[in-house]
Amino acid sequence: MGDILLTGGTGKIGRRLARQLSERGYSVRVASRSGVGVEGCGDHVKGIRFDWHDEGTFGEVIEGVDAAYLVGPEEVAEPLDLVGPFVERAVEEGVKRFVLVSASPIVKGGPMMGGVHAFLEKYVEEWAVLRPTWFMQNFSEQHYCQTIVEEGRIYSAMGDGKVGYIDVEDIAAVGCEALIGEAAMNRELILNGPKCLSLDEVAGLIGGAIGKRIEHVRLSEGEMAKRFEVLGMAEAYARVLAGMETDISHGSEDYLSREVEIVTGRKPRDFEAYVERTKEVWGEE
Hints:
- By secondary structure, the protein is an alpha/beta fold.
- It has 12 helices and 11 strands.
- The protein is 41% helix and 17% strand.
- The longest helix has 15 residues.
- GO terms for molecular function: oxidoreductase activity.
- Keywords: Alkaloid metabolism, Oxidoreductase.
C-alpha cells in the first residue's frame, strides 16, 4: 500500500491516528501548515507542508498516496470550495480512498462539511464520513480547559442537554479502520461514547476527580457566541457553534450509536476513565 495522507494531521484526531497507523506499520504523511510531523511515531510518519488555500502545496502532498484522511479548513463557511478541487486532483493522481471528518449535527448536503460529504459520496468510489459528537478532549485540550483551570467554570448554552461525549482515541481507531480496511465502508458513521452526560454531570465528575468544585455556567445562545468570538472565532462560525449548543439543550445529541463497537470490536471508552487519565491537566488538589 502507498502512503496514507492525513490532512490536519497535527490536530487532536490526526495525532492519534498517525500513531495508530504507524504502530500497524503503515507509512503516514502528516500534512499541516507548519509541515511538522508527530512526535513519538518513528520513521513511518513524515511531516509535509500543506495549506488548503495554496494549491501549490497539493502536488507533493498527494504524490504516491493511496488513501487520504480529510479535515476541512478551519472556520470556512463553504469548505467544499477548497476541498473539492483538492479531491478532484487527488483522484486524478491515483488516490483511491477518502475518509472525511465531519460532525454529528451536520447532515449530508448541509452547511460546513455537509457539502463535502455529499460531494464525496457522488464523486469518489471509496469513501467514509465520520460524524463524531463532541469530544471528551474538548475539556482538556480546547476552550473548556482554560476556564476549568482558571475559574473552576464551564460556560455553555447547552442547559440540561446531554451529549454522548466520545474519546478522540476512539474516533482515530474508527478512522484507522476506514482508511486501511480491505473493503471501503462507503457510508457515514455517527460516533459517540457509551453514555450521555449533561454538563452539570461533567462538571461533577471533573470536580470530584480533582477535589475542586467545578460550576456549569448557563449562557444564552447570543452570550455563548460572543464568548466564542472573544476566543478568536469568526462571527459566523461562532454563531453556528452557539446554535449547536442550543440544539443540544433541546436534546439533539441525547442518543447513542454502536458504530465504535461495530467497527473496532470493543466498546467505546467512558468519560470516567478519561477523567482519571487526564485529571493532572486540571490541577488535581
